[in-house]
Structure formats: C-alpha cells, structure tokens
Design goal:
The complex is a heterodimer of chains A (about 270) and B (about 425). Chain A has about 270 residues and is α/β, with parallel strands linked by helices. Chain A contains ten helices and ten strands. The longest helix of chain B is centred in the last third of the chain and has 38 residues. The chains are: A alpha/beta (about 270), B alpha+beta (about 425). The complex binds adenosine-5'-triphosphate (ATP) and magnesium ion. The site of adenosine-5'-triphosphate (ATP) has 12 residues of chain A, from strand 2 and helix 1. Chain A: Keywords: ATP-binding, Cell inner membrane, Cell membrane, Membrane, Nucleotide-binding, Translocase, Transport.
Chain lengths: ~270, ~425
C-alpha cells in the first residue's frame, strides 16, 4: 500500500514527578501520495508530537506509522522535515546547506549540481548561494530549509510551523511557493500551523485536533489549495465557502481554548 | 606615603584626561552606536575608548618614569629626587660642666647604587672636632660625632643643638640639611631629604629595563638567550596544550555522546576541574622531576579538563533540530558527528582553548618559578634572588605581553574559523 498510514497512535509522556501526560490518543489517518494536509489545533494538543512520531524521532507508546508498506522505526531520508528555525547549518554556505542530503549519500556535484541550482532558482536564492546562513533574513533562511528538504527528494515532507516566524508579507509569498512546489513535485506534505488562514489556503485536507488527550477532532476536504496554485492567494480568500469555513474552524478552536482555560481555572 | 601620592596623581590624570578628551574631541564619528540615545545600561553601546587606553598606558609609563627619575621623562615631571652631593651641618657640643663648642660635620651623599667613599676633612679647633661622613641617598646615617672630640659622651658630653636649633633625646628637628634625631646613647641620626623617588633596587626606571632586555637578548642570561628562555616556556605551553586538546576534545565528545563515557569520566573531570594546576606542581616534581616531561605533563593536565568540558558543552549545545534535520536528510551517525556535531562545537572549543592557553601560560611560569633550568619564570626567579629588579620587571612585562599576544592570536584564528559564532 502506498502513502502514509498513521494507525492508532497513542503517546503518553511519563513525567519525573510520577504523573503522565496523554499527548495523543488513538490517532489514525491515511495520506495518499501527493496529498497536502494542514494540521490545526490549540497549543499543546500534540501536533508536534504527532509530527515527530511520523518523522521517526519519537517512538509512540502505542500504534504504528506505516510508510509505503513498511513500518517507521526511525528517521529516514524518505521523510524530510522543515523546522521552524535553527535547523540550518551555519558553518556551510547556502548551496552547501541545500546540497547536504545528496552529498551525504556520497553523490558527486555532477549528480546533484543541476537539481540544487534549479531549486535555488525556484526559491529565489540564486544570488545568495555563496552567502553564509547568518547573512540571510528569516524568510530567506526558511526558503533554504525548504530547498534543502526538496533537494534530498523525500516522499513525504513534514513541516512544523515553517512560516511561523515570518512577517505577514513574506509569509504570503512563502505560502505561494509551498503551493507551487507541492504541485510541481507532487510530494505528500503535512504542514502544522497556528494560522487558520494558512491552514485553509494550503490544506487540501485540513485536520483539526483537540487537546487533552490529543486527538483528531474533525477533518475537512477543501478546494482552496488547488485554486491557489499559481493564483493570487488574496483572491482565493474571496472564494465561496472560504469565510464560512474559516469562521467555523475559528469558533471550534476558540471553544476548545475556552474549555482548557475553564478547566485549568477550576483545577486551581 | 609614596603610595598615596602615586594614587592621587593617577586619579588626577584619569579625571583630567577624561575631561580634556570630552572637551576637545566632541564625538565626531557617526556610526550606529553614536546615534543610540540610551547608552547607560546598554552594554553593546559601550565600546572601549581608544583615547582612554592610550592615555592609560602612557600614564603608567609616566608615573613609573617620574617616580624613578627616568631620563625618558622630562625633569620637571620628576618626583622630588633624594638629596645627592655634599652638605654639612654644625653641632653644638655641651660638656658636663656646661662648656660649649661648635664643630661641623661634612656629609657626602652618594647616589643610589654608588659606593659611598670615605674622605678626610680638617678637624678644626676647640674641644669639638669636625667630622666627615659618607652615606647613600635616601638612607639615614648614625653619626658618632665624638670619635675625634676631646670630650666624649663617656665624659658626660652631649649634643645640645644642631645648626643652632636645640635638640635633646626624643626630639626630632628639621633643618635645611635634613632631619636629625638623637639615639638613646646620644649619637646623631641624620637623614638627608629622601625625596619621593624609588630606589632602582625596588623599581628601576624604564630605560634600565629596556637596556637590560637588550643586553639579555644579545648576551643571554644563565646560559640561555632571552629568546631561548621565552621559547622554552612557549614550547612547553604549546606542547602541553596540544596534548591536552588532543585527548580532551575526544574525551569531551565521548562524554557528550555516550552515557557510559559520561558516567565513567564525570567524577574524574568534576574532581579535577576545581584543583588548580598550581597545586599539582609539587606532585609532578616528585613524580617526574624538574625536566621537560614534568612540565609538559603539568600543562597537559591543566588544559585536559578545560578542553574536555568545552567539547562536552559544545556537543550538548547543539540545537536538536539540526541533528534531527541531518538524520532526516539521510546522514549517518558518523556523518552527523563530522558535519554537525564537530563544527557546531567549534565555538565552545575555541572559548575553551583560549581559557586553556591562558591557564597554561600562567601555570608554566609558576612551574618555572618553582624549578627549572630555563624559561621565563626561572629567569625572574633567579634574578629576584640577586635583587636584579630590572630583570624581574622585564620578565613580568614579557610574560604579560606574550600572554596577551596569544589571546589576540587565538581570537583572530577564531574569527577566521568560526565566523558564525554568536550570530545565529
Ligand atoms: N518531552 C516531553 N515530555 C513531557 N511532556 C511533553 C513532551 N513533549 C510534549 N509534551 C506534552 O505533550 C503535549 C503535546 O505537546 P506538543 O508539543 O505536541 O503540542 P503542540 O500541539 O505542538 O503545541 P504547540 O502548538 O504549542 O506547538 C503537551 O501537553 C506537552 O506538555
Ligand atoms: Mg508544536
């Protein structure tokens, strides 16, 4: 079976003081090849934990992740990750960062040079390829992270709030870039975000998670990502159903947050 | 007394040069910092003031020169010099039966470090006879005035006045010639004006130190030239440091990467870290003697723990996202070590190396002070036994300059090799 299957994942963190946190409970979902799913949910509902399990950085206390028919037991080049920030290698220039994956596989520049340069071109980093990482702006650094991930040609790309640290304008440009690259490369993508707008614009599928214990609350199938490819994202926001869905999801997350606040107030 | 004088002069120069620079050099640079309005409390806005540094160094030489009567400092800036040359005073002898007679004491005061030569004078008339006294600057001399007098202290005679000023047991008087007092037995103690300058044996003037340096640089000291002495010290430091780094860095990595290594070496490292290397000198001498082996092992031990701790901190300081990213990009453990952990730990290792070099340099000098047949520390130790203060000072200055030079060099190398330090 191709695609990515998350089967009955549960995750419990045992704390040193004897108590434990149920970060995820019985989460199941399946992604077909080439699907783009955005994940939303109030803070602490287990989004990062889920992504780390899929990436293979954490072993779940229950359940399995199956990727193209085999169980996930650890990190692997088939599942690339784009972090929010701080994951670039400062001791390498931009081009060396982007070509890191192929180089680690032992490929020669003749093998990866063209592809890396094309990605630098697509992400608009051509003029900066010899620059050091600390000489780049936050938006450029995220483009490097994206290009680095793509240069390694993974089957699945996992992104944990990749655009969270960017200003609104840069963010919008980057959203367009993500959509374009998604359509161009046909990668399976899971994208965690705190922004409902971003989740709507980028998510072909949109997963809303609920906290305590972390679980899937509701899933949407949305047309906006397809509309957005190569189009003006602000136009998409005027599309039919966009505003309604946004209000619905906002209300949903709002209620969850209220509930958390209320509960922790009565706990005190 | 001199200490307070020097302190006051120093503070005065500090304040006056501050006011002068503030007044004369209105801020002319227009860099970003100069546009900051909040500078007090913003450490990044406080740059070391070049003027202040220059004036500070000049002031030290000025004070040094002025209080040692240096030829490099114009005479009017000299602190008062001690009296040197010929002087004289008259004393009034009073016998037991009330007879009085005056006699003159001629005093010849020789400069610092020169032999005082005895000389003869005409003894004159009367019961009290003239005396000749030779002495050195800044010293007191007890004058047995009655050696040649016809009536002596044994006969009940005493000194009643000096230069016409009455003097008795327990009173101290000052005249143009200097200070006078009487000892318990009635002899005269005379101190010519001692001025405020230091004797070369305490503090030689700067030109003496430079001259001595030139001399040792060409002729050597204790069978080795100056450069050989310094070279020995540097060689020991570099050899000890390299050995320490060679073993300490892998040890630190191992402690950062493996729980067994960490558990095994943590008690040792944590125990050795607070033991100052100086405390190991006696043991190292007992075990290895005073030769090169002992010194290099001492410096090896001094740098080993520092480098191990720095390397361990470098490993644990790696942002876990970087390691995760590298794994997701398909890197092997070895590749992660080589391409992520090692470069990521370089800033920490450089910080550690700078500390270690500083500690090693200090330790080698101390070890040479204790026992060595060549080296910067040995040079000043031997010189101090012969009161060759100029060599001691020269050694201290060179040790400081070299230590400073090492640190600057390390910082330069760091800037080249770790340009991303503190910028991510
Ligand atoms: N290493 C850990 N040890 C203990 N508890 C943890 C650990 N990691 C996560 N948790 C807990 O698991 C829950 C889910 O955390 P997670 O980081 O997955 O949330 P999130 O949805 O990503 O939140 P955010 O939106 O703020 O990033 C939280 O309650 C958190 O306290
Ligand atoms: Mg998170």
């Amino acid at each position: 079976m191709t695609g990515l299957s998350i089967e009955n994942i549960s995750m419990r963190f045992d704390l040193p003081n004897g108590s434990s946190v149920q970060a995820l409970k019985d989460v199941s979902l399946h992604l077909n090849e080439g699907e783009l799913m955005s994940v939303l949910g109030p803070s602490g509902c287990g989004k990062t934990t889920l992504l780390n399990i899929v990436a293979g950085f954490l072993a779940p206390t229950d359940g399995t992740v199956v990727m193209n028919g085999h169980n996930v037991t650890g990190p692997d080049a088939e599942r690339g990750m784009v972090f929010q920030q701080g994951a670039l290698f400062e001791w390498m220039d931009v081009r060396s960062n982007v070509s890191f994956g192929p180089r680690m596989k032992g490929q020669k520049e003749a093998d990866w040079g063209a592809q890396v340069d094309r990605l630098l071109d697509v992400t608009g980093l051509n003029d900066f390829k010899d620059k050091a990482i600390y000489e780049l702006s936050g938006g450029m650094q995220q483009r490097v992270a994206l290009a680095r991930c793509l240069a390694n040609d993974p089957d699945v790309i996992l992104m944990d709030e990749p655009l969270g640290a960017l200003d609104a304008l840069t963010r919008e440009k980057m959203q367009g870039l993500v959509l374009r690259l998604w359509k161009e490369t046909g990668k399976t993508i899971i994208l965690i975000t705190h922004s409902v707008e971003e989740a709507l614009l980028l998510g072909e599928r949109l997963l809303v998670m609920a906290p305590r214990p972390g679980r899937i609350h509701k899933e949407y199938k949305l047309p906006f990502a397809d509309m957005g490819v190569g189009a003006d994202l602000r136009e998409v926001k005027n599309a039919d159903g966009y505003a309604e869905t946004r209000e619905e999801i906002l209300g949903m997350i709002w209620n969850m947050e209220e509930e958390i606040m209320g509960r922790s107030e009565t706990e005190q | 007394m001199i200490g307070i004088m020097i302190l006051l002069v120093y503070i005065a120069i500090f304040v006056l040069s501050f006011l002068a620079v503030r007044f004369l050099a209105r801020k002319t640079t227009r860099d970003f910092t100069s546009l900051k309005t909040v500078t007090f409390g913003d450490e990044s806005a406080v740059n070391s003031n070049r003027f202040a540094s220059i004036v500070s160094v000049l002031t030290i030489f000025l004070i040094w020169g002025s209080f040692t009567g240096s030829a490099w400092v114009p005479g009017f800036l000299h602190a008062p010099a001690p009296f040197v040359g010929d002087t004289s005073f008259t004393y009034t002898l009073e016998t037991a039966d009330g007879q009085r007679d005056d006699a003159t004491v001629y005093v010849r005061v020789a400069d610092f470090g020169q032999e005082s030569e005895n000389f003869e004078v005409d003894q004159g008339e009367g019961i009290a006879k003239n005396d000749a006294v030779a002495m050195n600057a800044s010293r007191s001399s007890t004058i047995l005035f009655d050696r040649n007098d016809e009536v002596t202290r044994k006969d009940g005679a005493r000194v009643a006045a000096i230069d016409g000023v009455d003097i008795g047991p327990g009173t101290e008087i000052r005249t143009d010639a200097g200070r006078f007092a009487l000892t318990d037995k009635g002899a005269i103690t005379f101190s010519p004006p001692s001025g405020l300058q230091m004797e070369p044996i305490w503090l030689p003037p700067p030109e003496d130190v430079v001259a001595r340096m030139a001399e040792i640089a060409t002729d050597g000291y204790r069978d080795s030239t100056l450069w050989q002495h310094l070279g020995y010290s540097l060689f020991r430091v570099i050899a000890g440091f390299l050995l320490g780094a060679l073993l300490g860095i892998p040890l630190g990595y191992a402690m950062g990467l493996s729980d067994w290594f960490r558990g095994w070496f943590e008690p040792i490292v944590e125990f050795m870290r607070p033991v100052p290397p100086l405390a190991l000198i006696p043991l190292v001498i007992i075990w290895f003697g005073i030769g090169e082996t002992g010194k290099i092992i001492l410096l090896f031990l001094a740098s080993l723990w520092i480098m191990a701790i720095a390397a361990r901190a470098g490993v644990s300081g790696v942002n876990i996202s970087k390691v995760h990213a590298a794994y997701s990009l398909g890197a092997s453990k070895f590749q992660i070590m080589r391409h992520v952990i090692m470069p990521n730990s370089l800033p920490e290792i450089f910080t550690g190396a700078r500390v270690a070099m500083g500690v090693c340099w200090g330790t080698v000098v101390a070890a040479e002070l204790v026992a060595a047949s060549e080296g910067a520390g040995m040079m000043i130790m031997v010189a101090s036994k012969f009161q060759l203060t100029d060599i001691v000072l020269m050694g201290i200055i060179l040790i400081g300059v070299i230590g400073f030079g090492i640190d600057i060099l390390m910082r330069k190398v760091e800037n080249v090799l770790v340009p991303w330090k503190g910028r991510s």
